């Protein structure tokens, strides 16, 4: 059992601030003179190992990410070319390294400041400069969340730490969107302080990739899933490129199922049937070409010369869940959009919100009508108008889910 679990069992109202030592997990390591073939053997032996520390005289000098390493070595002739070479060829030479004595609060902010790499690949923990073990962002978020159970104040502070982590991950995409598409706007409102919705935008030479996703749950459990899903999506993009959204969803599906043990219609982790619904598309501004793949989310498209909103539905399977096959393949749908077209995508937080005089869902039809009536508005104005309409519709009813929607104009 991890040291963090032992710590939580002995939790008392008067407690000292836990430290990185409480997150430290013993893990295999390798020396700098080891070969890539030896790294492959370790990853094959330890299939749950995300990152492999590299040491020099018991001091850490880098981390080898499992997915990146295997994707590189699986290419044709790579094993013959690099198998006998030093493992430092595929090593991250600047991982986050922290001392075991650093407290959780300081570690949280340090991890956020260091960037997404520390959350996805993990970080190294040392004691007096000597390698002690590793941990990762998901473990950090879990311990932060578990600490909150005994005190309401602790709960609020820790969720705020998790919110900082989550918002820092989203900020990268927000900044990319601003430089990618001026005529666009994203709204992200978690039902609680943290949420199960996330979005990603990637700018490339001839186009950009957008993903809007709704993970299982909301609050802290939902935030855990966004970390898993956004991490695996980033790795899929790095491996396969941005222009095939269906392939990206299939890659994320395999990663989530393997990580959570949701394979072959069975659940190896009791109570776990988790994943995400997503709309993922690649857009080329020069020719208006859009390639869309959806998992239970749809695109709303309003062309400038049309009085009807076209609804392009995604596939019926969610990503990562027990009932989606390990090798399930989503389908790409290609559309050419004329200049002045409005594209809108939302998670079900908007569609399923109960309200109105009959306490029914907001629904897709209401979104269609609203897009037509506000077609002259810029995307940011459209977002403000939808939020106002939603709040008026919601009335006395509670917010049911996280809310994320995105629009842009070609």
Distance between the termini: 53 Å
Query: What characterizes the major β-sheet?
Result: 5 strands, antiparallel
Please state the second-level CATH architecture of the largest domain.
Answer: 4-Layer Sandwich
Name the average pLDDT: 89
Rg, please?
A: 23 Å
**CATH H-level name of the largest domain... which superfamily?**
PPM-type phosphatase domain
Number of DSSP E strands: 18
Uncertain stretches: 1-15
Query: How many domain regions?
Result: 2
Question: Rough shape?
Answer: globular
Word description of this protein:
This protein is α+β, with helices and mostly antiparallel strands. The protein has 2 domains: 3-146, CBS-domain; 166-409, PPM-type phosphatase domain (Phosphatase 2c, domain 1), CATH 3.60.40.10. Helix content is 38%, strand content 23%. The chain has 13 helices and 18 strands. The strands form 5 sheets. The protein has a 5-stranded antiparallel sheet, sandwiched between helices. It is globular, with a radius of gyration of 23 Å.
Note the main attributes of this structure.
five-stranded antiparallel beta sheet; 13 helices; 23% strand; alpha+beta; 18 strands; Phosphatase 2c, domain 1; disordered N terminus
Write the layout of secondary structure elements.
Blueprint lengths: L2 H7 L20 E2 L4 H10 L5 E6 L2 E7 H8 L4 H5 L14 E3 L4 H11 L1 H5 L2 E5 L2 E6 L1 H11 L4 H29 L3 E6 L7 E8 L2 E9 L3 H22 L4 H16 L15 E9 L4 E7 L3 E4 L7 E3 L20 E4 L5 E5 L1 H4 L2 E2 L4 E2 L2 H10 L5 H16 L8 E7 L1
Parallel strand pairs: 1-2, 4-5
Antiparallel strand pairs: 2-3, 5-6, 7-18, 8-9, 9-10, 10-11, 11-14, 12-13, 12-15, 15-18, 16-17
